[in-house]
Amino acid sequence: MADIFCKKDALQLLQNRFILIIGDSNTRALYNDLIYLLHENDVTSPAVFRKHSNKNVKVKEVDKVVKQNDVRNATRNLQEIREYWGANGVRVRFCFVTRVMGQQMLWQLNEMERGDIPCPDIILLNSCVWDITRWGAMMEDTYKQQLVQVFTRLRQLVHPDTLVMWATTLPVAENLVRGGLLIKQLDFIQKNIRFMALEANLFVSELCKLFCFDIVDLHYHMRFQLSR
C-alpha cells in the first residue's frame, strides 16, 4: 500500500524547498502530479496527460514557461523548462531532456554553477529511452559515459545535504511504445527497448552507490503494470 499525501502534508514537507525535476515526458508527469497535489489537492487527470504540457488548463494557470522552443519542429532537441511557485515557499522547476548530457542538461547545470538559480534542496533525475534510441549507433556506451559526467558534475555543484535521486526508467511494453519518441525508421528497435532499459537501470543503480545518490526504483514498482 502506497502512502497517501494530501496538499497540507506536501506543503509542510516541502516548506521553503526548491525541487528540481529533470527528465522526459514520464518525468514531466511526476512534475504535473506534484503541482496538482500542491495546488489542487489532487492528481493530474488522464485527460490532461493526453495533451502536451503547454495545454494543461489547470497547471498553466499556476506554473510558468521559463524556456520553450517550437514543439512541432523540436523532436529530440525539444527545450522546455517550467516552474511553479507555491504556498509555504515551495518552488518546483521541471527541465525536459532527451539526452542525459545534452544541451538541455548542460544549460541547467550551468545555471546552477553561475548562481542564476539556487542550489536545489531536492533533485530528481531520469533520462534513458531517448538516449538509447535516438542518438546514434554507439548510444549505449555514450549513455554510460555521459551518466558518469553528469553525476560527477552534480557532485561538484550540489550542497552535501542536497537530496539527489535518480528515478529508474519505467518498464516498457513490447508493442505499446507510441508518441513522439520512436519514429517509423526505428520500429525495429521496439522489441529491444525493454531489455536495454533494464541494463541501463542496473548500470545507473550501481553508479548511484558510488556517488552516494538515492534511487527511486519506478521500474520495480511498476513491473506488473505493463498492460497500462
TrEMBL record:
Q: Which Gene3D superfamilies match?
A: SGNH hydrolase
Ranges that cross the membrane: none
Protein family (similarity comment): Belongs to the PC-esterase family.
What's the protein called, per UniProt? Answer: PC-esterase domain-containing protein 1A
Which species is the source of this protein? Hyalella azteca
> Lineage in the entry?
Eukaryota, Metazoa, Ecdysozoa, Arthropoda, Crustacea
